[in-house]
Specification:
The chain has a domain at 2-54: Roll (SH3 type barrels). Helix content is 26%, strand content 28%. It has one helix and five strands. The radius of gyration is 23 Å and the shape is elongated. The relative contact order is 0.16.
Length: 94
Amino acid sequence: MTNSKGLKIAIGSPVRYIGTGTVGTVKAIDLANGKYWALLDTTNLYYDIDYLEPIEKIEKKSKSSKIKVKIEETLKEEAKIAERATEVTPSGAG
């Protein structure tokens, strides 16, 4: 099947939805309301094939890389909090 941009979309093809960057493999293609829709395995949702583009492969982030990113984000946030805490100026009563 070819979308309006001339890109081939087929069952089993890895694709990217250009609206959000969602990636997945096409599980099914259905015709509804005069449009073709592709079911993606990663979301179990249908996407208008005119907004899908084929990709070479789906790169999955490993669980450890997701954890590493989360740790880095947490450390950056804690550093910001610590920096703000040291910016407090002393005030005396007297």
